[in-house]
Every structure is written in C-alpha cells, then in structure tokens.
Amino acid sequence: MLRLVEWARPAVPRIVTGGFTALGASLLALAVPQVLRWIVNGPILTDGSSQAVVAGALLVLALGVLEAFFVWCRRALVATPGTTVERDMRVRLFRHLLDLPVEFHDRWAGGQLLSRAMSDLGAIRRWLVFGLVMLLVSATTAVVGVVLMFVTSWVLALVYVAGAVPMVWLSFRFRQDYKVAARRAREQTGDLATAVEESVHGIRVLKAFGRGDDALDDFVRQADELRETEIDKARTLSRVSFALGAIPEAILAVALAVGVPLTAHGHLSVGALVAFFATAAVVNNPVERLGQLLAMTLDAKASTDRFLQVMDTASTVTDPLEPHALPPAPGAGSTVELRGVRFAHRSTRGSSEVLSGVDLVLEPGTTTALVGLTGSGKTTLLQLVPRLYDVTGGAVTIDGVDVRDLTRHDLRRAVAVAFEDPILFSASVRENVLLGTDDLTGAEADARVEEALEVASAGFVRRLPQGLATVIGEEGLSLSGGQRQRVALARAIATRPRVLVLDDPLSALDVTTEAVVTRRLREVLRGTTSLVVAHRPSTVALADRVAVLEDGRITGVGTHEDLLANHPHYRFVLTALAAHAPGDGVEERGDEDGVDGPPGGPPGARAQRAPRDAADDATGARTGRHDSGRAGVTPGGAR
Ligand SMILES: Nc1ncnc2c1ncn2[C@@H]1O[C@H](COP(=O)(O)OP(=O)(O)OP(=O)(O)O)[C@@H](O)[C@H]1O
C-alpha cells in the first residue's frame, strides 16, 4: 500500500497535518486524566478548596473544547485532498484504460473495470482520509497512553499490557480471514456490475427471447453471493470487535481488583488510581476501534491491489522510441503493404493462428475488397492496419513505413476505420462525425461534416429533432442499424484519411440505399487507398480488385471477373454469400434520394439482416469442394 504515496503525493502534506491535529486531539484527551489526578490528590484530598476544583474543571473544559477543535481541523484538512486524490487516480486509470490495447479489453469484463474505477477508488479515498489517519493516531494514542499508565502505576500498567497479548493474536487471525473475504467481495462487486452492464446492453435480446427471468435469477444468485461474503466479513469483524471491546473492559476489572488494595495499603495514591482508570478509558477507545480500522485497511488493500493490477498492465501497443514520419501524402492515397503477416489472438496464441502469412499490396487510390468465409480472419486482418492489434509476425507498412514505427496518433490520423457494428457516442451528430478530426473548427468543420454526410447518404440526420445538434448514442436518440452505419461511415470519411478501412460498412442498408452510398463512395475513394471487407456481392462492386482470404492466407488477387473465372474458392464464397445477401432487407426505404427514411422508420419496416453464417466455414468449404459454379454471380447483388 506504500505505492499509494505515488498517487497521494499532492495530498500528503494535508493528510500529515490532519494526522498531527488528530494526534493533538488524542493527547489532549490523555491530558484530562492527569488534571483529574492533580484535582483528586490536591484540592479534593487536602484542603477541599472549591476554587481549585473549579479551576481544574475549567481546565478540563478548555482541554475538551480544544480537542473538539482539533478533531474539526482534521476533518477540514483531509476532506478536500481525499477527493482530489480520488479524482486524480480515476483520471489516470481511465487514461490508462484508453491506452491499453484492444487485446486487454478482449480479456477484461467491463463491470470489473467499472467497479475498480468507482467503488475501489472510493474505498481507497475513505481509507486515506480516515482509516490511515485514525489507524496511526490510534496506535500513537495507545502507545502514549500506556507510557502514561506506566508513569502512573507500573503494576497496573503491566496488567493492562498483559491483556494486549490475546488482542494482538486475535488481530492477526482477523487479518488472515478478513483479507480473503475482502478481496472476494470486491471481485463479486465487479461481477455484479458486469451482469448489470451486459443485461442492460443486451436488454432487447433478453426481452425478445423472454429471458428476463433467467437474467434476474442469475443476478439474484450473484447478489446473494455478494451478500453472503459481506455477511461473512461482518461476522469476522463483529467477532474481533467483540473481543477487542470486551478484553480491555475485562482488564479494567482485573486492574480494579489489583489497584484498590494497592491504594488501601498506601502503595498507590487515590489520584493515581483515578488517573489510571481515566487514561485506560481514553486508550480503550482506539483499541476498540482497531477492528474497524483494520477492516477498513484490508478493504483498501484489496482495492489497491485491484487498482494496481490494471495500472501495472503495460500497454503492448506503444509508440516507438524514435518514431518515423509518413512521407508527404502523395494525393491519391498511400501504398499499404502486408508482408508475411501472421497473427494469433492471445487466447489461442501457441495453438492456432488466424493469419499465417498474408501477403497483400494495396496500390495508392485503389479499393480492394477482402472476401472470405465467416471466421476466416477478415476483421482481424483489417484491425492490424490501424494497430488495434499488433502482428505476431511479418509487417504492415504504409508508404514503406512500418506501422509500428509511427506514433499511434500519426497512424490513426492516416487510417480511418468504420466497423460493421458501429459505436456512436452520447454526443451530437456533428460531434460524432467530427470525432477523428481534432483540428477542425467553425465553417471548415461544417463543410467537412456536410461533405461526409453527403457521401455517406446520411442526410436523414437533418430531419432529426435538433438536426445535427441532436444527441445520439446511448444517452440520446436511437438510430436504426443502417442509420448508425451511415453516420459511422461519415465519421470515417470526414477524417479524409490516406487509408480507409471498412468492415462491411453497408451491411445493414437495403439494396437501393447501398447502391446510392456505393456510387458516392466510389467517387470519394479515388483519393484514398481502401480495404473493404465484403460480405455481399454488392459490396464487391465498390472495389477495383478483390483479395481472397483462405486458410489464413491471400490465395487470390484480381478483378471480380478474373477471380470468378479462375478461383474456385472465390466462386464458392461468393455464391454462398449471394445466397444469403439482400434484398434480405434490413433498413427502411427512404424518401430522400431514395435512401433516407425518417428516424426510427415505420413500425415493422425493418427486419433483421439474414444471418450469413450459412456460409460458415463449418460447411467444409475451407477444405472441401468448390464446385458451386458461378451461376449468375455478379457484383451488385444479382443472383
Ligand atoms: N478477440 C478475440 N479473441 C480470440 N479469438 C478471436 C477474437 N476475435 C476473433 N477471434 C477469432 O478469430 C477468428 C477470425 O475472426 P474474424 O472476426 O477476424 O473473422 P471474419 O472473417 O471477420 O468473420 P466474419 O465474416 O464472420 O465477420 C475466428 O475464429 C474468431 O473466433
């Protein structure tokens, strides 16, 4: 937990000052018994001077008021820096999450990250500003108090210290048990958050399949598990709290039995006896609180471990130490080359590769369609260009520069991506479209948005309630699949990239809309080198050339006609795709340019896109016969 200093450094001065004021408060509390001793041994037992008693009482009052002031100071001092530290840690965690590669996010559940960013950091803050300070102050108070007890009466002090032995042993046992439960509770909180996140994300599927009750049962089971762990923790804590509360009181009984005879026989003054018990009462407070503070510390320890587990994960996709720059843009897109590219996902690394030696050259300004069976690795290959994953062998170059030699910023300015399942953020349409163009403002930005929307045939956004200012994404207006795809396509186009990577970007559009978008896209793509995953013959129509991905390699590159004539696997794939391609219609038919429908569209106007899994690799097509012929297979969707 010492490593928390690294994050808490700016707050350390105030936390330390807060600690000193808390210590001051405890020492003032310990001074009260000494005043009592003076009053009892002095004015009360000697001359009975009421003036001296009043003076003593006023002194106790002053000490009490001062103690209360110090307690207030501690709270005031540590409250603000605690929240600052929490905020800073949260920001650094989020920044690190953004920096970590996709590979990391493939492995980690969202809820686990969410709970680390929220509840774990909250637990660390509470410990820093309260637990840590009070633990140190309690320990110091106990030590100073015991020293005062020895000064008052070493016999009674020995009785008190002897009682500490079982308390230390109990605390040690408690630490062992509670630590495990604390960690388990944190993990279960993360799992619970994941369950909520997944269910909310997939609420339509749950409802459509009537699986809400199952999801609820699952959630209840997880919530019960967490509850049991929390009860486990509470039981462990209450056991130790009981012992830490009872033992000091029992010690006081023993001390009384020893102390009274000592006083009766004149070995101990009455004032000293009173002072001993008053001191013991002050010391008992922090001792009894020890269980609670230890629990808090162990909770914070579990949270710190979980936080550091993420922070210590180094990013594997990093900027080079000596980055290269891309040569000036040639004007007609860049040359992209994949040389002997191999790739295996982390989970299957060592056992099987998705790509096992891909060689492909994309000439400047050309559009290449990537065709292959489902699961053949098209999406994976695409993601290697903007380094969402790093190749495990070979290299990807842009204009002769290895993508790993570019800074990620430069690379991602040069390469734009649109995925089949587009994610839009909770922001206005305009902000979503301008996401990748960080240096554009004002009229220039407006013009770029207009142009991108035009090419992507996304004019429907102007008819949204607030036009381009309408908030879409999770917190805003829901768009249909095809509408989202077009906004995402506009976002990719708006960056005016050298290289455009499109993963079946028109899959949710009906044939008419796709034809319009395709026509406009072809015009724009002339100045860009594009790689487009094609699942439909009509998407192949976008391309100048087609590359066939088969068994982890490119087994054919050529025009559609050439491949159709000479490449059996291409014929097979295309036939299989054509058999499942639209008009398996998806998107509402529109009213503007024959493409744009009103947002949301008429009920029932949308249907799910037909599954293309029938063209699955499970058909044996990878290894089997490719004799499906070429009957009527042409780009543009004709069957
Ligand atoms: N994050 C991942 N972790 C592990 N394996 C993965 C991951 N993503 C994809 N795969 C596997 O890699 C293989 C290729 O997947 P990929 O998505 O690239 O295929 P695809 O050709 O794009 O498929 P489709 O046409 O269905 O979109 C599949 O076997 C898939 O299960």
How is the secondary structure organized here?
Layout: H1 4-8, H2 12-44, H3 50-99, H4 102-107, H5 110-152, H6 154-201, H7 203-208, H8 212-264, H9 270-311, E1 336-343, E2 355-362, E3 367-371, H10 378-384, E4 393-398, E5 401-402, H11 408-414, E6 415-418, H12 429-433, H13 442-455, H14 481-494, E7 499-503, H15 511-525, E8 529-533, H16 537-540, E9 545-550, E10 553-558, H17 560-566, H18 568-579
Parallel strand pairs: 3-8, 3-9, 6-7, 7-8
Antiparallel strand pairs: 1-2, 1-4, 4-5, 9-10
Keywords:
639 residues; alpha/beta; ABC transporter transmembrane region fold; Rossmann fold; 2 domains; six-stranded mixed sheet; four-stranded antiparallel sheet; 18 helices; 58% helix; 9% strand; elongated; disordered C terminus; binds adenosine-5'-triphosphate; transmembrane helix; transmembrane
Could you please describe the fold and organization of this structure?
The chain has 639 residues and is of the alpha/beta class. It has two domains: 12-311, ABC transporter type 1, transmembrane domain (ABC transporter transmembrane region fold, Up-down Bundle), CATH 1.20.1560.10; 336-619, P-loop containing nucleotide triphosphate hydrolases (Rossmann fold, 3-Layer(aba) Sandwich), CATH 3.40.50. The chain is 58% helix and 9% strand. It has 18 helices and ten strands. The chain has helices spanning 4-8, 12-44, 50-99, 102-107, 110-152, 154-201, 203-208, 212-264, 270-311, 378-384, 408-414, 429-433, 442-455, 481-494, 511-525, 537-540, 560-566, 568-579; strands at 336-343, 355-362, 367-371, 393-398, 401-402, 415-418, 499-503, 529-533, 545-550, 553-558. The chain has a six-stranded mixed β-sheet, sandwiched between helices. Bound molecules: adenosine-5'-triphosphate. Residues 106, 345, 347-348, 354, 372, 374-380 line the site of adenosine-5'-triphosphate. Residues 106, 345, 347-348, 354, 372, 374-380 line the site of adenosine-5'-triphosphate (ATP).
